[in-house]
Amino acid sequence: MAIIDRALEGKVALVTGGSRGIGRAICVALAKRGATVVVNYAARRDAADETAALVTAAGGKAAVSGFDVADSAAVAEAIKQIGKDHGGLDILVNNAGVAINGLLLRYKDDQWQRSLQVNLAGAFHCARSAASLLLRAKEAGRIVNITSVVGESGNAGQAAYAASKAGLIGLTTSLAKELASRGVTVNAVSPGFIDTDMTAEHLPEAARAKLLEQIPLARIGIADDVAHAVAFLAGPEAGYITGQVLRVNGGLLV
Fold this sequence. Notes:
Layout: E1 12-15, H1 21-32, E2 36-41, H2 45-57, E3 61-66, H3 72-86, E4 91-94, H4 109-135, E5 142-146, H5 149-153, H6 159-179, E6 185-191, H7 197-202, H8 205-212, H9 223-234, E7 245-248
Parallel strand pairs: 1-2, 1-4, 2-3, 4-5, 5-6, 6-7
Helix pairs in contact: 1-2, 1-9, 3-4, 4-6
């Protein structure tokens, strides 16, 4: 008999970049634990609506909110409205991200800026705007940032992506110390290579085969692997965990 886990019943969660891939899986995982999930999207309202339907089917309540995390004013307005609509905010998952790959000598300023604005500044904007709501959360607020194994190991052709994801780890540990006195925990989940549209685009078949040889668990991860880790950190079981990076990479980096 399956155990029904409703540990997030009555909690409101915002998942940025929640319309597809890892973000969608996170939305569904939180919904299965009973959360109301606000699905953020930047462009694809149709995809966000699909995620919202999956959230409802999983047993949660769903809403959608369209804004670009790189736009600090839009973030502030949207999160303010979310607080009004749902009576607060308990969980923030900073998942929105872009991978604009390229070698250093050919990399353009606008590519560098966009990478940092979405992956790093976006998380900062959201955390700053959500902080007052999280500090008033019913029990204890939660921030979970989605970084990457590349942010810890580096990777040729991904200098901007790696730098932004490494910066996200620094943001995580600093905010953990800043918000701990009010019971808000801040952690990061660091996925390895996960089967998503993004990795399919940037990981040719030959490179995929070579990568598999380096992963002790001998498989590429799936979005649910990451989502389960996030749902744990968002729940009451993780109340004494803060400032940590939870690696979900099959042993690729240990």
